[in-house]
Design a protein that fits this description.
Blueprint (H helix, E strand, L loop, with lengths): L6 E5 L1 H6 L4 H16 L3 E9 L8 E9 L7 E9 L11 E8 L6 E6 L1 H19 L6 E5 L5 H11 L4 E5 L3 H12 L6 E3 L3 H5 L4 E4 L20 E4 L16 E4 L2 H5 L7 H5 L10 E2 H5 L13 E4 L4 H18 L3 E4 L2
Parallel strand pairs: 1-6, 7-8, 7-10, 8-9, 10-11, 11-14, 12-13, 12-14
Antiparallel strand pairs: 1-15, 2-3, 3-4, 4-5, 5-6
Helix pairs in contact: 2-3, 2-10, 3-4, 3-10
């Protein structure tokens, strides 16, 4: 039999921007795959890390996943994303990513795409999905630490879901937090205030998000700042929380327990390694809550923490959304694979 030609679609960042994928579409795709995860309709392995000999400039994350509910017989994908904090000094994003999609029935590659936007919005959407099920519906004050990478998606998606009356943002560099606040003011009517410290951002906040870009563990989100009824999302690569943070929490939720235990990075790495967070002390994985297997928020005064590390299945779900739209619009460049 003559071997048939194999073509794949390449989608640049520009191609993807032209598709104008909406915020509601992103949140719906992420919530859908989280639900699939809760129902056992996904397959993935925890991320692995590649740390080059580059003087500590950064590292790569390799994520692999399959979602059975996408397309006729599911979709598989692999994403490689760099995490290079000093990139801003060269005018580059700190996170650059590439996604490859495969037909799980034949192994045929279907697409290669810039996954930088996917990485940003899927993280913000996961924060939003967690908040939808775990934060108080009447949350008014958002305190956000971190101004780059996923920060914009975090804040704008939370602002879309909650009746916020104030958004407070901060970061290490004054020019960075002021620029972030100015950018937010162009897309929201909610008052945005750039503050000098994390303590100011988190004071009396209903939703506390820690998305800092630390090089060494430093407590920015202090346990004393978490008031009754608060929803807390710490997900920086390097820990910015105190070790006793979990002591005041009524519920701790993660995206996936295997993912939480893997690797050398993560906001609650020390809590897992020292036994402060275990499978027994965990309330649920977020998929169990979204799919209805376990309850989310049950009382207004519950302090709830959601730690999400970034599941590969989110990348696959958003890549599927992008690829489907690109095929319909005949966008991108077709490349002969063999």
């Amino acid at each position: 039999m003559t071997e048939r030609a194999i073509w794949l679609r390449f989608l640049s960042g520009f191609d993807i921007d032209e598709l104008n994928i909406g915020t509601d579409e992103v949140i719906a795709a992420v919530e859908g795959v989280v639900d699939a995860h809760g129902r056992g309709r996904t397959v993935f392995e925890p991320r692995t890390h590649l740390v080059p000999d580059n003087g500590g400039a950064g590292h790569f994350n390799i994520l692999r996943g399959h979602v059975s509910t996408l397309g006729d017989h599911g979709l598989s994908g692999v994403k490689v994303v760099g995490d290079f904090v000093p990139n801003y000094l060269q005018g580059l994003p700190s996170e650059l990513a590439m996604m490859t999609l495969f037909d799980p029935a034949t192994g045929v590659p279907l697409a290669i795409m810039d996954a930088t936007l996917i990485t940003e919005v899927r993280t913000g959407a996961m924060t939003a999905v967690g908040a939808k099920h775990l934060a108080r519906p009447d949350s008014k004050i958002l305190g956000h630490v971190g101004a780059r990478g996923t920060a914009f998606a975090n804040v704008t998606m939370l602002d879309r879901l909650f009746p916020l009356e104030e958004i407070r943002v901060t970061s290490r560099r004054p020019e960075s937090r002021e620029a972030f606040a100015d950018r937010l003011r162009t897309v929201t009517d909610t008052p945005v205030r750039a503050v000098a410290t994390a303590d100011e951002a988190y004071a009396d906040a209903d939703i506390l998000v820690e998305a800092s870009r630390l090089e060494q563990p430093t407590p920015l989100l202090r346990t004393a700042a978490v008031k009754p009824g608060a929803f807390v999302v710490p997900y920086g690569t390097v820990s910015a929380v105190e070790l006793d943070l979990l002591d005041v929490m009524d519920k701790v939720v993660v995206d996936d327990w295997r993912e939480s235990r893997s690797g050398r990075f993560g906001a609650l790495r020390a809590h897992v390694d020292t036994g402060r967070l275990t499978e027994q002390s965990l309330h649920a994985q977020i998929g169990e809550i979204v799919s209805g297997a376990k309850p989310g928020r049950e009382r207004p005064d519950e302090r709830i923490l959601f730690w999400h590390r970034g599941l590969s299945i989110l990348d696959v779900a958003l890549a599927h959304l992008i690829l489907t739209r690109a095929e319909a619009a005949d966008t991108g460049t077709m490349l002969r694979y063999r």
